[in-house]
Amino acid sequence: MKRRTQPKPEDRPQNTPAKTPAGVAGSAPPGTGESAAPLLAPFLNEVYSRLYQRYGPQGWWPGEGPLDVVIGAILTQAAAWTNVETAMASLTKAGCRSLQAIHRLPVDDLASIIRSSGYFNAKARKLKAFASHVVNRYGGDLSAFLDQEQEPLREELLSIYGIGPETADDIILYAAGKPSFVIDSYTRRIVKRLGVLVQEKGDGYGAFQALFHDNLPHDAPLFNEYHALLDRHAKEACAKTPRCEGCCLKDICATGRSSEGS
Ligand code: SF4
Prior knowledge:
This protein is an all-alpha fold. The protein has helices at residues 37-55, 66-75, 81-93, 99-104, 107-113, 120-138, 142-146, 150-158, 165-175, 185-194, 205-213, 220-236, 254-259. Bound molecules: iron/sulfur cluster.
């Protein structure tokens, strides 16, 4: 998947993180055994610092506001961001870029408006489910919904039809500005190739997320930038077929090191 806005300097989030997360410093090889856990914090810090130096700030969401983040997070499931932008422009043109309008609109009409995003019937049901939830429980006040504590917010998001862990964390991080690390296929791919062990806690979403939550300061601007940098790196170097030669992580990456001389 991925939704992505084209970074614009003026869209950069406030409080853009420093190049190095506070509280961790130095570098270390990836976890390769029982003694690896204490090394993970400096290792993740080193990965972040290198990616930041390589690509600079990515200027991801919040774009034009929390509602756009929510709509984008739902529409981007299995869709290119350019198609999501087309669908969002169609919503604006139809006068339906509000929770109240989406809540009122018949699902078939909504599906037709967001057709360009793909899987439009399912996504129309998901958008309506979210809009109806906020309208019915919060009088349509998205801020009131997002302002609650992070854990109950996540639980409530996951209770809404069509909102899975990744979409929920997209909304928590990029719309609510709370520190919940987003795990997507790009993040999984890079983490696995780096050689960081997450299997001890299972190979599911929570295990990957715990890797970041357990070893980095819980800081929303940091998580925002880190996730965006990982996605950028997956597109620029750590693609399906990795381009390890010249990768800024090669000397600290298990896959990169094993590729030497092959
Ligand atoms: S060295 Fe290769 S496998 Fe490792 S992060 Fe870079 S591109 Fe990916």
